[in-house]
Amino acid sequence: MTPTALPLRSLNPRAHLIWVCICLSWLAWLLPASLPITPLEGDEVGVIHGAAALASGDTHYRDLRYLYEIQPGSYVLISELARLTHASTEVAFAWLTVGGAMLFAATAGCLVQRLLRTPWPLVAVTFLLSQEIWAGAYYLNTTAVGGWLAMLALLVALPPANAMRALGVAVLLAVAGWIRIDCLLVSPVIVALSWRRHRAWLPVAREVIPIAALSLGLLAGLYAASHVHFREILASYEERGGYEGWAHTAAMYCVVTSALVGALSIIGVLLMAWRRDWVLLLVWISGVTLSFAIYGRSLASNKYLYLAAPFFILAAVFAGQEILARWSSWSRCWRYAIGGLLAGLLLFDTVLGVLTSSPVYRLYEPGPTLAALGKTTVGGRTLELTIGGGELIATTDGYRMRGGTLFAPLAWTRDKTDLIRTLQRFSSVALQQCGESSVFVGDWLGYQLALRELRLVGFEFISPHFPDQAYSYAGIWQKAGQRVHLGYLPYGKSAYFDPHRIPPNLTGQDTYFLGALGDHGPLVELNDGMHWQLQTAAYGFIKLHQRVSH
User: Fold this and answer.
1) What are the C-alpha distances in Å from 334 to residues 130, 326, 329, 340, 348?
2) Hey, which end of the chain has fewer CB within 10 Å, N or C?
3) What would the pLDDT profile of 462-502 be if each residue is shown by its tens digit?
4) Hey, what long-range contacts does 167-173 have (CB within 8 A, 24 or more apart)?
């Protein structure tokens, strides 16, 4: 059954202009948080290191790269853009990320709008409400760099196929998969779109099999040219840790989109089944199944559902247009009830935040908070409702907000600026010392950022390099008579902490710790009669401590 179609020209010119202004203003408010440019997590620093080594031909630091085997195309694009523009690989990565995130939203939005034949303001607002869509532009990530090409492939595959379209789809999928293999998670949608046209398996097979064969052939060639073997790709997924379980994924579902969009998307899927719109339901299933199958039990970051987010939005828009189509036929009581519920969820998504953590356990400071509206206790946990940003939920790729997402640009800009200040302070006090100093790290982010700063100011690694070690560049770094001892110090709650193996302090008060702390804190004291003193803000992406004697 065809979904209820709303006429594309159902808006008068004045209403159309109003919606254009609202959406452009909303976008203009969200986008500046992509600045300032700075890495926020260790993985993206690894990509920057690897792309820099590729751009310069330096093999000494090639092992600093992160998961090259699943995203070789990203390294090539970043290094080539940096070389052609004479920008740093960090800046080139940022350009590709922001541009890719905007194109991803645009192509995915066009796909949803054409599938449902619904007025574009409904699609645009739903995308703007979905946190993961615009958060993808706030931190450097290769999923945004390649994801838009996968969405463009689906958009090209939407009309009736011909030889040129089939070629375009195959090439776009191959290049997207070369940039990051995860981009192929939405490739089954090609089959669903073909079924939407033909409703018979034989013509679907005739159309899809050549596309798949050509795409896989091109992809294999690109990976072979990048010196990556298929076994390495499989190994990278087999080595993934962190099995949080399905409950965690379910809890984060509405954070990926929003409370309103998440609720509407669930209703939309149920409506598809109730109305027996099996074709649209097949599109939805084919767009989300691989993401859930691979990452559902180990959702370390919302980023892993980034490619599935447009299909959550597809279901939400389907439900939204059904509500709009039936609105005038409902009684006043029903309209007040449903309108009040939707308005409440919209307010929660945009301006009302929920704070759920004690300040003692927070990694990030929520805010800005304009007003506190009240507190309550649920299951021994205090919940506070505010006008302002909601609780900042830590992930391995920045954070997401529990409500109040209109304040997200302020929070991201504040914390990215603080991160830059912390790294500047770290470089000035720990890496500008005459003689020797020591830097300890206890997590992946601290390690990668320490390496970033060491390389930026010209230090070279002179210790033996053991690529199989987790922190293979821990050791002695040297520059013009200066030496920095980079070492690993596990947190007190870490599985690697051994109270009988505390490293010595070789440099007295010229000893520092750079790390995110997180759930594995507190810091472990050294056997030197001194203690750690925080040198930066208590909240944020990274903290700097120094050994002091008083």
Assistant:
1) 26, 11, 10, 10, 21
2) C
3) 998 888 788 889 999 999 889 999 999 988 888 788 888 88
4) 167/214, 169/211, 169/215, 170/210, 170/211, 170/212, 170/214, 170/215, 170/218, 171/215, 171/218, 173/149, 173/211, 173/215, 173/219
203: three-class secondary structure by DSSP: helix
CB–CB of 191/208 below 8 Å?
yes
pLDDT digits 0-9 by tens, 124-172: 999 999 999 999 999 999 999 999 999 999 999 999 888 999 999 999 9
Which are the contacts of 349, defined by CB distance < 8 A and separation ≥ 6?
Answer: 129, 258, 259, 260, 261, 403, 405
Are 541 and 435 a contacting pair, CB within 8 Å?
no
Q: Helix/strand/coil (H, E, C) string of 238-288?
A: HCCCCCCCHHHHHHHHHHHCCHHHHHHHHHHHHHHHHCCCHHHHHHHHHHH
**CB half-sphere exposure, 137, CA atoms < 13 A:** 26
- Using CA atoms, how far apart are residues 86 and 384, in angstroms rounded to an integer? 49
The whole-angstrom separation of Cα 539 and Cα 363 is 5
Nearest to 134 by CA among 62, 234, 201, 34: 34
CB 168 within 8 A of CB 215: no
Q: Give just the sign of the alpha carbon dihedral 429, 430, 432, 438.
A: positive
pTM over 0.85: yes
Q: Give the containing element (helix H, strand E) for 477.
A: strand 475-479
For the record, the structure tokens of 44 come out as 């993206």
Q: What are 245's two structure tokens? A: 């379980």
- Given the structure tokens 């800005």, which residue do they identify? 368
d(CA 227, CA 214): 20
Q: Is 214 helix (H, G, I), strand (E, B) or coil?
A: helix
Q: Which two tokens stand for residue 229?
A: 């073997």
Q: Which of 162, 102, 180 is nearest to 138 (CA)?
A: 102
Q: Please report which helix (H) or strand (E) contains residue 461, including its range.
A: strand 460-461
